[in-house]
Amino acid sequence: MEKLPETLYVDPTGASSPTAQKDSASVERAKVEYYIRLLHQPLLREEALALLNKERKSDDMAVLVWNSKNVPFILLQEIMAAYKLLSPPVLDMKEATRVCNAVALFQAMASHPDTRMEIVKARVPVYIYPFMNTTENRLKHFDYLRLTSLGVIGALVKVEDKNSPQIIHFLLDTEVIPLCLRCIEVGSELAKTVHFSLN
């Protein structure tokens, strides 16, 4: 009689084997590369942003996005397109979600050891400061935008390494503290909690 597995939770396809894990990583990478290609098509960009954010746990995603031709510029275009909708506050939930997805990709890059200094050298956080400076507190999606922006700052300061002093100096020099205080002043309880967790 064939030997039964010790546990019923064994994957019968052998997905836990090194070969299967390697194949799985290749599939994940291929998906990320496909979504990155979609970013170059304006009509598909909104969906591509959402799909890429679902792949944020992929080890390679932040590096692939940062190193893909024109992609950081495309993300910055998405962010800057929302500036004109901040004052007066006419940004709607759909537009806010799209911008949050672009900002969240920069958060993934801020969390990754191979890209966090690159986004600081490119002064990317400065592009999200206008979202942290908004005073609209009646519309939830403005709060989501502030929270996602705070997430980028949090990702940059969360890890202590040899680059930490340079990152902290950059944030102080670009006057992020008053913006964080603004988030406390006008934001929800969640925004205040996120800010205090940064300190």
From TrEMBL:
Q: Which GO annotations describe the biological process of this protein?
A: mRNA catabolic process
Q: Where is the composition biased (Polar residues)?
A: 14-24
Q: Which Pfam families match?
A: Rcd1
**Region span, Disordered:** 1-24
Query: GO CC: one term?
Result: CCR4-NOT complex
Q: Which InterPro entries match?
A: ARM-like, CNOT9
What protein name is recorded for this chain? Cell differentiation protein RCD1
Q: What phylogenetic lineage does the species belong to?
A: Eukaryota, Viridiplantae, Streptophyta, Embryophyta, Tracheophyta
